[in-house]
Amino acid sequence: MDTEAALPERDRSPSADEAETEERSRSVVSGPALRAAAVRWWTQWRRTALLVVGSVVVLLLVSTYVVQPYQVPSGSMEGTLRVGDRVLVNKLAYRFGGEPRRGDVIVFDGDGSFVQQSGTDYVKRVIGVGGDRVTCCDQQGRLLVNGHPLTEDYLYPGDTPSQVRFDIVVPDGRLWVMGDHRDDSRDSREHLGDPGGGTVPVGKVIGRAEWIGWPVGHWTKLDRPAAFAAVPAPAGHHG
After folding, report:
1. What ranges do the domains of the chain cover?
2. Fewest 10 Å CB contacts: which of 20, 105, 183, 239?
């Protein structure tokens, strides 16, 4: 009787040559796949980097030449603008033949008019343009522009149009500007005795404040007040 037990059949271990062949096959398959994945990653990364760089360039160009945010540094324009408000300044508003108009809220460089060093910007409201006669005040305490009294609903509550008396004709190419918080604004009235009589050169205007962009709860479009609509042209001027 054959007493030798039959051993269970087991998988044959691969030989060294077979293992090398299998490893080579995996390398051949994985090499191109890895290279393709690397190419896809590099393409995606480059596309993202170009998009980021392009966005930054566009933002810089827009900020430099079109619209610039400006933080209100003081309370001189309350209650239209509060300290810390960020206004969006349209830097193209007065390009291509445009001129500041009465009632506009503008940002300007005070160099040579309000201060003697450059780089100090101000935000004020235009009250008179070149040729206008601006006077304080009539018997009701209102400002007069070319003899027309202004009803200034935008003034800070409790303020009078001006506690400083003045009567000035604005030179051509210059502006008479005042803050809406008249009792807390160092504006054209502060510089009556300076060269230019407190007026600001049009060429120093950076742009017109169009919107309050921040904070979100104070979003407002800065429209030109109706008070200026009926102001007549100055004597000897048209329009």
Report:
1. 16-65, 66-228
2. 239
pTM reported for the whole predicted model: 0.74
Among this protein's residues, is 188 annotated catalytic?
A: no
Report the C-alpha gap between 220 and 229 in whole angstroms.
21
Q: One of 91, 113, 124, 188 is an active-site residue; which one?
A: 124
Q: Does domain 66-228 have CATH number 2.10.109.10?
A: yes
Per-residue pLDDT tens over the stretch 64-88 = 446 899 999 999 999 999 999 999 9
pLDDT tens digits, 146-199 = 999 999 999 999 999 999 999 999 999 999 999 999 999 999 999 998 988 999
Which residue among 76, 162, 185, 188 is the active-site one? 76
What string of DSSP letters covers 20-88? HHHHHHHHHHHHHHHHHHHHHHHHHHHHHHHHHHHHHHHHHHHHHHTEEEEE--SSTTTTTS-TT-EEE
